[in-house]
Amino acid sequence: MHTDLVAALDIGGTKIAGALVDGDGSLLVRAQRPTPAREDAESVMGAVAAVLEELKVSPLWHGARAVGIGSAGPVDASAGTVSPVNVPGWRDFPLVERVVAETGGLPVALVGDGVAMTAAEHWLGAARGYDNALCLVVSTGVGGGLVLGGKLHRGPTGNAGHIGHISVDLDGDLCPCGARGCVERLASGPNIARRALENGWLPGPDGDATAAAVAASARLGDRAAVASFERAAQALAAGIAATATLTEIDIAVIGGGVAGAGEVLFAPLRRSLRDYATLSFVRGLTVAPAVMGTDAGLVGAAAAASSVRHEGANARAVAAP
Ligand SMILES: [Zn+2]
């Protein structure tokens, strides 16, 4: 009989996934709905409620002690609200309050999706056993999270470690966030594809112009494709090196769709790190691919939930230290 479970929610722009998770990180019951990302706030909340309803009909639900939510950002864990860039109907949406209501007063923990992925990799994945780690999600955007001194470092609003929006190119291209030369502007999947196209890369006959297609061309030696990945790797390396210099991380774990490019990304990334991570205390930094795959969001949300599960009903501890 499972009596110490948590419910996990992973909220993204395309799907809302849920699970009941045990103390070993096993997903015992799953539920999923597409995100009605173009619809109004209540329609999106309806999809969250439907996922929770599906979990609640499981006999295991009675063992759930807390809820963990990993959401596309920005989130504000201190206010319990979310404003995902790709879900325009939700702006300062009081997600924590609504999930508390839907679950009969279970304590709820909210973190950004980058922090959730980091929690998952630290609990059961590539950062396991490391006390100081940076985890990155490189896909449509670039997100991340930090483990410092053996603990997940969320920050007051749950966004700490958001490496995608630190500038590595002072006078670089304008980023949608308002700054210039952000890591994301140089290293996200869409920007890898855009730069390759601008420099003469031609998609194959299937017309696929994604970063994955650029990676396939790079593997065959296409110069514009290789160069675009090298530039992305350089930006990531500069961001990782800066983080390592500030916080003395031991490992940088890289996940997300773009990490699927494998050595096309990792080889130039390790090379560039030698250029930027130069001081004695950062030279030993390890770079590793993420291993938790598509369940990272749910497993990480469950890890976040475990920080509030013992605080009792109606606790709204949303930014535990
Ligand atoms: Zn930015």
Strands in their spatial order, largest beta sheet = 3-2-1-4-7
- The CATH class designation of the largest domain is Alpha Beta
Distance between the termini: 31 Å
Question: What percent strand?
Answer: 15-25%
* Small molecules in complex: zinc ion
CATH architectural category of the largest domain: 2-Layer Sandwich
In N-to-C order, the SSE pattern is EEEHEEEHEHEEEHHHHEHEH
Brief summary:
It comes from Streptomyces clavifer. This protein is of the alpha/beta class and 321 residues long.
Structure, described:
One of its GO terms (molecular function) is glucokinase activity. The protein is an alpha/beta fold and 321 residues long. It folds into 2 domains: 5-111 and 295-311, Nucleotidyltransferase, domain 5 (2-Layer Sandwich), CATH 3.30.420; 126-291, ATPase, nucleotide binding domain (Nucleotidyltransferase, domain 5, 2-Layer Sandwich). It has helices spanning 41-56, 95-102, 113-124, 183-187, 189-198, 211-219, 223-247, 263-276, 296-305; strands spanning 5-11, 15-21, 27-34, 64-71, 75-76, 81-82, 108-112, 133-138, 142-148, 151-153, 251-255, 286-289. It has a 5-stranded mixed beta sheet, sandwiched between helices. Strands 10-9-8-11-12 form a 5-stranded mixed beta sheet, with helices on both faces. Strand 11 (251-255), helix 8 (263-276) and strand 12 form a beta-alpha-beta unit. Helix 1 (41-56) packs parallel to helix 2, helix 5 packs across helix 6 (211-219) and helix 5 (189-198) crosses helix 7. Mean pLDDT is 93; it is low at 312-321. Residues 165, 175, 177, 179, 182, 184 line the site of zinc ion.
